[in-house]
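The pair is quoted verbatim underneath.

:::
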Amino acid sequence: MTVLSDAQIAATARLAGFTGQDVVTAVAVALAESSGRTDATNHNSDGSTDYGLWQINSVHADLLKSGNWQTPLDNAKMAKSVHDNAGSWQPWSTFNSGAWLAYYGRAKVASTATTDAVTTAGQPNVTLTGFDWKTILEGPGALIPGFSGALGGGAAGALTGGGISGLADAITSLGKFLAFVADPKNWLRVAEFLGGLAIVAWGLWQFVNATSLGGAIKSTAKSAAEGVAVAVAA
């Protein structure tokens, strides 16, 4: 059993031709339909069967024969075909019932992740360093149109009375941050950044101590400090 991450589903949807808001919806629908499982199947009461990441129904027999439904990219292309023929997401029961909205926040975050090249199996390699942190922190109030108030606010909302949904978003945000920190590649970036700051600080200190202009700066700073001290004492 292969379970794709949210970001991998988003990348696969893009590769299949989904764009803009449809990428977000595609991720949310896939999560609602299959929980990201590429081999998911479901037998319906009418005798039909749903297959794969986007649960392509067996009524689309010719479409299912056009590729391997267990391959993420093939299944995504099938979903794109069904979507485009219908002109909407109405063919998916989880869209009609609103079940997909439970995954909207996750899908929105996933849609902001940067992606690398696609493997021959059709499953994209995904890095998790390209998140839109503003979107994450704003939470569902920004992710779902019309969703605001006591349950909105994301991480900030959780800290200021944002409610259960805000707390959930805060935990999600923390998880993404920890994933960023856990990547050794990011350690090197942070170390390089801090090292650069240290070099700049050292250079400025040497400048202040070794030049007449630096001496003037120190003298001015000392005079300003003494003036403040006198003003406070008065």
